[in-house]
Automatic annotation (TrEMBL):
Species, as recorded: Streptomyces griseoviridis
Domain Ketosynthase family 3 (KS3) residue range list: 2-402
CDD domains: CLF
The protein's name in its UniProt record: Ketosynthase chain-length factor
Record's keyword terms, sorted: Acyltransferase, Transferase
Length: 404
């Protein structure tokens, strides 16, 4: 096997589109999936809008035995994995069972399932708590359920590093492909829009309190006041490039470079680690900054975090040195699902030779970024950088490029 790892299938469950085709059509058109919360009554909370996946009826896609034992997060992940495998033209049952594995990321686990069972415990007693609670809440449950559903018993695992986790999972999958695995299903899907999950997210102090879906999530904008959470994400199929070509697979692109760093302790005088992660990812891909055609930003919408990201990008690429976009302004921040969804957007940007917009934002020129706003920008995108940061100091960067 060679060293190049490619993406051959994608599955998307996003607030502005259920399925990759619908998501990409909405993203190109600048259509947002952010709106008032409908999954629980949020009237008494300071933040009341989110990105919810529309039109998802689990019973239309999954058998009843799985409905009983899974959280919404896992149901979305199972559907995305089904779609990704079908998109790749892979039938797992036809592969030797140890040739395929699953590596996903998770940020919160199955909060909604857990909340329901805790309510049963408090109101009815322990006899009314589902036995499935023992795993339905767990960070690794998406990996486990996908692997069981498709008989994948190869290298598998889960990564927990908040928003950065989706890139870290893809990197782990790339390592396993390089070690000889035939297929790895990877990415991230989160869904914790329930009262318990909402309280946990509010505790971080980074959520927008605006009730206007068009003005709530404004990264790199002078009016930025926190982010809007969302649910969903993306699952991707990774393969060795030579093996994928030999079976006639369509190649979305190559996962060419990756790096991760940690921020230093506060007030220690050392700079944040994002710039170093970007530089190391470029080194891993054997590319120079001028080889990058677009950056998909983390886009925290917290002024000090936006400033730190802008400074890192300017330090590597120069002021306004590369187009920057944040299509997650149409979905909200999807925790572990956000960065894999950005990777899908980057691959589709390469395919369609265009950069999707950052909607609703009036960029503050003080940040020194060439932010793509308003409408898509035509561009011969060959190579893209995706960056992600997780609360607690996680930084990750992935380079994807056109498969030659």
């Amino acid at each position: 096997m060679g060293q190049a790892t490619v993406v051959t299938g994608v599955g998307v469950t996003a607030p502005n589109g259920l399925g990759a085709k619908e998501y990409w059509a909405a993203t190109r058109a600048g259509r947002s999936g952010i709106g008032p919360i409908t999954r629980f009554t949020a009237d008494g909370y300071p933040s009341r809008i989110a990105g919810e996946v529309p039109g998802f009826v689990a019973e239309e896609h999954l058998p009843s035995r799985l409905i009983a034992q899974t959280d919404r997060m896992t149901r979305l992940a199972l559907l995305a994995a089904d779609w990704a495998l079908a998109d790749a033209g892979i039938t797992p049952e036809e592969l030797p069972e140890f040739d395929a594995g699953v590596i996903t990321a998770s940020s919160s686990g199955g909060f909604e399932f857990g909340e329901r069972e805790l309510r049963n415990l408090w109101s009815k007693g322990g006899a009314h708590v589902s036995a499935y609670q023992s795993f339905a809440w767990f960070y690794a449950v998406n990996t486990g359920q996908i692997s069981i559903r498709h008989g994948m018993r190869g290298p598998s695992g889960v990564v927990v590093s908040d928003q950065a986790g989706g890139l870290d999972a893809l990197a782990q999958a790339r390592r396993q492909i390089r070690k000889g695995s035939r297929v790895i299903v990877s990415g991230g899907v989160d869904a914790s829009i329930c009262s318990w999950g909402w309280v946990a997210q509010l505790a971080a102090g980074r959520l927008s309190t605006s009730d206007d879906p068009e003005r709530a999530y404004l990264p790199f904008d002078a009016a930025a006041g926190g982010h809007v959470p969302g649910e969903g994400g993306a699952i991707l199929v990774l393969e060795d490039a030579e093996a994928a070509r030999s079976r006639g697979a369509r190649l979305y692109g190559e996962l060419a470079g990756y790096a991760a760093t940690f921020d230093p302790a506060p007030h220690g005088g050392r700079p944040p680690g994002l710039r170093r992660a970007i530089e190391l990812a470029l080194d891993d891909a054997r590319l120079a900054p001028e080889d990058i055609d677009v950056v998909f930003a983390d886009a925290a919408a917290v002024p000090e975090l936006d400033r730190a990201e802008a400074e890192a990008l300017s330090a590597v690429f120069g002021p306004r040195g590369v187009p920057v976009t944040a299509p997650k302004t149409m979905t909200g921040r999807l925790h572990s699902g956000a960065a894999p969804l950005d990777v899908v957007a980057a691959l589709l940007s390469i395919r369609d030779r265009m950069i999707p917009p950052t909607v609703n934002v009036s960029p503050d020129q003080a940040y020194g970024l060439d932010l793509v706003t308003g409408r898509p920008r035509s561009a011969d995108v060959h190579t893209a950088l995706v960056v992600a940061r997780g609360q607690g100091g996680f930084n990750s960067a992935v380079v994807v490029r056109r498969a030659e």
